[in-house]
Amino acid sequence: MADDAQMQAARPTSKAVKFGEGFVMDAWYVAALSPELKPGKMESREYLGEPVVIGRTKGGEVYALRDVCPHRAAKLSAGKVRTEDDGRETVECPYHGWRFHTDGGCAKIPSLTADNPLDISKVRVRKYPLVESQGLVWIWMSGDVHFDGQPPCSPPVIPGIVGGKPKLVDHLDYDIHIDHAVLGLIDPAHGPFVHQQWWWRTAASQHEKHKTFAPSEAGFTMVRHEPSKNSKAYAILGGEPLTEITFRLPGLRWEHVKVGDKQVLALSAMTPINAGKTRMNQIIWSDHPAFTLLYPVIRLAARTFLRQDGKIVAAQTRGLRDNPALMWVGDADQQGRWYHQLKREWAAAHRERRPFQNPVEETTLRWRT
Q1: Treating both helix axes as pointing N-terminal to C-terminal, what angle do 178-185 and 295-320 enclose, rounded to 10 degrees?
Q2: Which ranges of the chain does DSSP label H, i.e. alpha helix?
Q3: Which residue, 32, 76, 38, is CA-closest to 57?
Q4: How many other β-carbons are positioned within 10 Å of the β-carbon of residue 122?
Q5: 90/105 Cα distance (integer angstroms)
Q6: S-S: 362 plus which of 9, 41, 214, 269, CB 3.0-4.6 Å?
Q7: What whole-number distance in Å separates Cα of residue 111 and Cα of residue 305?
């Protein structure tokens, strides 16, 4: 499996830390959606606390470099995109005009005289591997600051991306660590309290649920089942929908719904900006006619849903500032426990240079929601 090869090839990372600290390293994160990166343009981003200049060449290739010039630490993103005599594009530092190829190698240092012996090809800025797939741009974040090769595995392939470009795209920045953001992503019990709408459910509409879970690549899956009867939103799809929900490290959750030969895929991708801020990217694809006929209603509902999560995160921010110990109560919190175990095992496997061993076992969980 890809995970096994990844574990054997990866370099060791830092020791495991407590919940709410550290990141899953040597992993792919969603850096951007493909349309966000315009040809010939670059912009400043931050991923996992690291400054990154990300862009797309006029020829369409995506690239990412550390957004720090090695000369005087100026932001490369504050400079310009240039085209060299050989046609290759470079990023020019705004301070002294040093230019860097999109592979990180130095192309020009204007202040040097012709007889200067410096081999500028040995001057580099860190390059971050990028892969563009399924309309997403993935960035590989290595725990080794000197990593300068190809990642040992490809980005995840998300099943059920149909209907061309996404039907809905939204994002929201949460002022909390990714660990706490992920808990909200995989928590099944908050729905009746945070998401109270006539088209979803009310606080009075609570029932006992039992769902079967199984381990899946770097995570776990709620196996395909009929949606809960008190989740009214599924009714707009008609027929007899069946849904499967998967979580995968470092912070991906997708729900794949099938209604006959039609499909809906809702992807939520958490990407840490830094230790205190996390971006939630929400993307929905579908070939179901409801997403054409009822698009304004569905779009408003999806945006409302995400911002209700954002509101409860804002209510948590002060309480989480000191990273207090959390309580884990019953099966409703089991997915949170699994996430914690998965993250610790990922770090341990890297540290010990051994294959990743998924700690999740197939089981049925029960809770009320």
Answers
A1: 130
A2: 2-9, 178-185, 191-194, 290-293, 295-320, 334-351
A3: 38
A4: 8
A5: 9
A6: 214
A7: 54
Q: Residue 221, SS3?
A: strand
pLDDT in the model for residue 198: 57
As a whole-number percent, the residues of the chain with pLDDT over 70 amount to 91
Biggest distance spanned by C-alpha atoms of the chain? 80
pLDDT one-digit tens code per residue, 118-176: 999 899 999 999 999 999 999 999 999 888 889 999 999 999 999 999 999 999 999 99
DSSP-assigned beta bridge partners for residue 169 = 283
Summary mean pLDDT of the chain: 90
Residue 48 has which token pair? 């996992």
Q: Which of 26, 65, 23 is nearest to 44 (CA)?
A: 65
Beta strands in 12-146 (DSSP E): 27-33, 41-47, 50-56, 62-66, 80-83, 89-92, 99-101, 106-108, 130-133, 136-141
Q: Could you report the per-residue pLDDT of 51-99, keeping only the tens digit for each?
A: 999 999 999 999 999 999 999 999 999 999 999 999 999 999 999 999 9
| Nearby residues of 125 by Cβ (< 8 Å), 6 or more positions away | 65, 66, 68, 69, 70, 76, 100, 104
* pLDDT reading at 5 higher than 50: no
Instruction: Decide: 97 and 110 in contact? Cβ < 8 Å.
Output: yes
For 73-80, the CB contacts below 8 A with 24+ separation are: 75/44, 75/51, 76/42, 76/100, 76/125, 77/42, 77/43, 77/44, 77/53, 78/44
- Tell me 114's DSSP state: T
Report how far residue 188's alpha carbon sits from residue 300's, in angstroms, rounded to the nearest whole number.
22
- Among left, alpha and beta (phi > 0; psi -120 to 50; other), residue 238 is left
List beta partners, residue 274.
Answer: 277
